[in-house]
## 1
Amino acid sequence: MSLELRNISRSFDGKQAVSNISFSAQPGEIIGILGTSGCGKSTLLRAISGLDSSYNGEIAINGNTTKEIRDTTGFIFQESRLFPWLTVLDNITFGLKGNKQDKIIRAKQYLEHVGLKECGELYPRQLSGGMAQRVAIARALVTSPEILLLDEPFSALDAFTKMQLQDLLLNIWKTYQSTIILVTHDIDEAIYLCNRIIILRGQPGKIDKEIEIKEPHPRDRGSKQLVEYKAKILDSLDLNKPSVKTS
Amino acid sequence: MAKHEGEIASSALVTNRTRGKKIRQVKTDFSGGKVIILGSVLPILLVIVWEILSRMGVFPAYQLPAPTTIIETIREMAQDGTLWTHIGVTTFRVFAGFALGTIVAIILGSFVGFYKKAEQIFDPMIQAFRSIPSLAWVPLFILWMGIGEPSKITMIAVGVFFPVYLNIVSGIMGVDRKLIEVGKMYGLNTFHLIRKVILPASLPSFLVGLRSGLGLGWMFVVAAELMGASQGLGYLLVLGQNTLSPEIIIASIILFAIIGKLSDWVLKLVEKRTLQWQDSLIKS
């Protein structure tokens, strides 16, 4: 499933949030959109998802440029956004259509996949933050989306849970080979997960740089190559300079 | 899977915590029993003192009869069957008015909650009507519909309408936009969005409205029956006043208290059943 953005611009009340963004994603690619806050990363993702349709430009998924929500995309938000009145299992089957028995079997399979086999009958209030986000991941995956959109999905989690879930995401990606667009402000996360990182800068946000990360998965979080990539990204965000001065 | 062990351990922790909560709940239930005993000491004492003072003739019987006299009055009415008619008639009026008021509130409240245009059209007028003390309608309703059942039921329905309406509207308007977005992401159309996201999300507020509506319903049935009725607990109040028998008045008051509490308890049970997913259960 290929994704192509052509000259996407979006303004809110006359003020431009992003301008002239164009890029394309190959099937099965993990693309990271990295940038400081306020440069329009989430705006871009909402446009791709179809939740926001008041943008200029074209977004083509497999050549189709409709501005509506498509059932081939899944969205994982920063918060888990589970429905508090549904059990974990019902939350996962929420978006599924068809026979109830089949839905439950399918949901259980994905629940096991995210490591929460025993938790199907719990209510969201009984879950920890990491567990809730796992359920959200299962809920987004259960419809077999070909494009998975993630909006800072792990930013509210502690460092350890975050790493666990990043690995979980990679596992899932390996199994389902979906195209992933990951919005993040966490440089380490982007380097660890993505095949390509698109750096947005400025207000309105524009594409500043594209960095390809050729290291094969799984990657070593502490490896020299990744550190070099990090230095490169920090440089391009002008974040490396103060430390150079002081040292 | 080994990677998830930490998470699973933390999940075990969560279940342990809920188990702990359950144990604590059982404990509070025990202390709840104690609280009930503690809370009923004073009323029982007062009733005993009242009985003794009445028997001693401190309170004249034509003003404040002894508790036993009141119980005897209720028993007599129960025996000749009039008690059940009175209770039945009053309860019927409350529930008919409650149902009518609730249905109208649901229809109008949903419209106003869902459609901005409907809000702009209806809400200012409804808010204006709300500032009229509902009892002020009584003469008008009697003039329009006579002294029979329709005017009484309409009266009660008006009282029930406002709290239910207000809570439905604020419930629908307060639904988390983020949850609606999730529904949209799954391609739900407006109808399904309402049924699967907005209604369940606004249910807690709706139930609060129902309970306060029912409370007002009981208040208004007294008003309606005081205005003129030949049956019902409110009629007993008037009858007691006219025949100088305070025991009938007090008996009626006690019956009101019991039935009102019972009906509220039923609603509370419904609330507990349907809202078991909520973090903070009902405080009552």
## 2
Amino acid sequence: MWPRFLERWKGIALTLIGVVATLWLAFSGQLGLYIHPRYFLFTTIMAVIGGALAIVAMLLLPASGADEADHEHEHEGESEADASQRRRRPRGRRRALAGAWATVAILVGAGIALLALPPATLSAATAVQRDVERTTSDLANESPLLVGTDPSEFTFRDWALVVRQGGAAAELTTTDVSLVGFVMPAPDDPDDTFVLARFTITCCAVDAQPIGVPVHLPDWRERFSPDDWVDATGRFGADPAGGEGLVLLPTSLEVTDQPSEPYVY
Amino acid sequence: MPRGHARSEASASRTTYAGVSMSHTHHAPPTGAPGPARGLAGRRAVGAGIAAAILAGLIAVRVTTSQGEFDLPDATQDFVTLSASVLIESLPFVFLGIGLSIAVRLWLPEDFLVRRLPRHPGIRRAVVSLLGVLLPVCECGNVPLARGLIVRGLSVGEAMTFLLAAPILNPVTIITTYQAFGWDDGILAARIAGGFVIANLVGWVFSRHPQPMSLLTPKFQAACAHEHAEGGRKSRRAAKMFAEETAAMLPALVVGSAIAGLIQVAVSRDLLVTLGQNPVLSVFALMVLAFVVSICSNVDAFFALALGSTFMPGAIVAFLVFGPMIDIKMLALLRTTFTTRTLVQLTAIVALASAALGLAVNVVA
């Protein structure tokens, strides 16, 4: 009996899980952990509508008595083939049972992922896996040249890109910079450089691309661990370790809280 | 209907019903009301109570766990975050699609469209493949619609054209594809054009079949009779459609999101890049993936976006064209209407055409 009950209510149950999760994220200001801000309004409105539809459907759906009447009606028109199919009961029932357990797994999984676990940003481990070097230089190549524009207005993203766009223009190395990002190990994992990174997203967290600037700090692991959020102040300059390109030479580095909008756009 | 009857009795009685405060939508009859009316209103009150309890429970879980410190391993945590982001991004579009599809099925008479179609077979199929613009239903909702259309005089080939084209050539799919990819690499254009051409090709092939009715399962007529007989009040039917559509789509969406998240964290970047940058292998890899994940066409662009940075555009196009037409879930649904033999032929044609399209895009890109 319960597989049929589940079959009937699983869509509404999943709707309610998704709606509660979405609306709670919206009201606690954390929707930005998952999707781009341009979807906030649309997502919130549709979640309210979806939730309202689900509740109304719960109240209006024919209850079990009416359901059985429906069912008899279905069999009225069934052909010989169907009837013989139904006679092979045990196999059909076993399959229905397996499907029902799969549904239970989906419901529990969705509940845990969306409701039980606290919301979180992507970790530095994913930034490493996604190859910050490559994604930053890809973006830098696609974006308009920033060299020559006024660096005092630069955002985190602008700094990350301008450093890759090459050219050690004087104004880049004479401007005081203050950047907030999370700590991730640099690609070859040197002891004297880490990457100060942020994720940039175009749609939702699944397309997040890490971008970052290299920061020169000998033995950085003694002060920070990956995923720490750090407020770095300093100027860009040639890499004292002899690497190519500009690195941030910090005058101060302080651990800070994760910003309310951890991604950059 | 017994409800009006029940209401007059309710007003005559002075007893109050314990469940009234929970249900704002209906006048609950007194406990003394006889017959089915009492059962119905009583059940509604109980239903409202259960709905409120479930909602309160879900909210309570969310609020109490939100401050919790779970130190999951990075990979597990990111798997959850990535999967949740696909789900949260897609969900509003799924609701939009379901809402539109319910509205169309309730208020647009089905012969309204069929009567106005042009007579020339080729032009007729071309117009049929654009019906998705007016019937923005995702592939899961299409099969019942197509069955209805066959009954109202559409040929089998035309119904197939509709089935294959509508999930791609509909406003919700086009908007989400645009949101995900913009005009990059011609992905959106190739998806629209490819969907149109392949659907019409399949329609043409099957229209040449000497006995088109033999393509359908014997069970189909019975299923149609059932579809016809569906009656009852519109709000009731809408509630049933909402429950059915969400039951068909959301489990597939949850599984699809989980697979998208899993691929991101579990499959090594090197393998993905190697596979994704190969102009031939990338196309077939994503076609297999589309077949397996069975994600709804309304939101599959967000899923493909996760792969966008590592896979060549032709592979993405093949994914976005093949997936809405043929996948595990769709074959299961189609099996209610078409014979297995027909479905094998259909799958072969669509797969070959999608692969050709994907490879062609890769050559151009």
